[in-house]
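User: Okay, second chain of the day. Same drill as before: sequence in, structure tokens out.
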Amino acid sequence: MDTATFVYDGDCAFCTTCARFAERRIPGPATIVPWQFADLAALGLTVDECEQAVQWVGTDGRRAAGPDAIALLLRGSSRLWRTAGRVLQFRPVRAVAWPVYRWVAANRHRMPGGTAACSLPQATRERLYGAPPAGSAN
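Assistant: Same drill. Structure tokens below.
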């Protein structure tokens, strides 16, 4: 793999807004892609993992999820963002980051830009709204 990959839930408006922010404001070598359009098998990821948290797959195959994935995304960027990534990986901060991440993930449909569909598991979304677009690797 030539570049690291950061995978998020493209069906969630809140997640998509955050990913777009990262693409615009956090320069780095990572490809940021919704899991619905990613080759999950090639990345070594499952739908369940991607529904639970954002995912990071490094060029060396190293994987991380949730705030650990966010920290690695930040660490591949400019000095300011690298510093934020290091802080996020600092053990006391990391201990708080995971519960906060889980709370945000569980309530993302209530976040600015979130929609009711953000709170539904993929199987339910497919049943209600149809399968992901053709060409996605799921």
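The mean pLDDT is 87.

User: Thanks, on to the next one.
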